[in-house]
Amino acid sequence: VVTIGSFDGVHRGHQALITKVREAALNTNRAAVVMTFFPHPSVVLGRAEPFYLTSPEDQVVQINQTGVDLMLQLPFTVETVQTRAADFVEQLTTHLRMRELWIGHDFALGYKREGNAEFLTRLGEARGFSVHAVDPITNDGEVISSSNIRAALRDGDVAHAARLLGRPFRFSGR
Q1: pLDDT, tens digit, for every residue of 29-41?
Q2: What is the pTM of this model?
Q3: What distance in Å separates the CA atoms of residue 163 and residue 165, rounded to the nearest whole number?
């Protein structure tokens, strides 16, 4: 049972998705797998400056604390950008024996984000896996997202960022 994403911040929305993956894995006697990438795809694509809510090392610790069976942190490169969604999914079904894919509401993977929920669902029907898209988690009507947490931090509203994260914001390093 696999979920894929950037999971920057491992915020309350990410935690809810990972919880669903863990529950689905337990209910089907399968492994719960979280796959993430570093650096963030938007950084590699030149759409954003690096402003990470967690370091790669802290992200590994936080995701592993959720109780998943396997956490993969893969490099995101210019070559990754060119990977077709069907080819990426082929790797998941071959190497991880994926039977379920759990995704966020705005998830897409592969070249030009071609692997959206509709595409993945059709592919899953053909290749023997199911796709489960999870609605966003909100806080007082606001979608909990890494972007909203970054905006709160830019505004100096660390209390609001902490509510969205589910814990106080912190960083480590020199």
Answers
A1: 999 999 999 999 8
A2: 0.93
A3: 6
